[in-house]
Amino acid sequence: MKKLSELSMDTMICVGHQNDGEFDVMSKEDYLRSSWFLDYPYEPFTSVCLADKSVLTFDLFDAIERIGEDSSYEDWDEDVYNDIKDLPETKAFLEKFKEASERNPTYWEGEAVEIDMIPEKEDAQDV
Fold it and tell me: What are phi and psi of 35, to 5 degrees?
């Protein structure tokens, strides 16, 4: 199990919600500034794990096949795919999709992270 103190500040982590099973994705740096961390010991720490990044890809043939499914002649998908696969517009679209997908990744819960740090209180007398 990884330790929070060992992660770089830009490591993306999943921070579990207390009651609904959902999670938020943020960097370790943002987590250390968040109420999930700073409210300790008044609120218990929530679960934390590494965020596994997933970037979607676009399969042109699969998309065409799904569009024509049940409403076109046999081999329609292959004919349409062969007609458009090498067009500059198609290549431009696929590149733009790839760029957009990389800017908007999906994160999944990965390996658990041990919270081996506690918030530093600036001045306990001010609390």
Answer: -65, -25
Closest C-alpha among 51, 14, 50, 9 to residue 32:
9
Segment 32-54 mean pLDDT: 84
- Residues 6+ away with beta carbon under 8 Å from 90: 60, 84
Count Cβ atoms below 10 Å from residue 77 Cβ, excluding itself. 19
Is residue 51 within 8 A of residue 67, CB to CB? The reply is no
Q: In the predicted model, what is the mean pLDDT of the chain? A: 89
CA pair distance 44, 30, nearest whole angstrom: 18
Q: Is the pTM here over 0.85, yes or no?
A: no
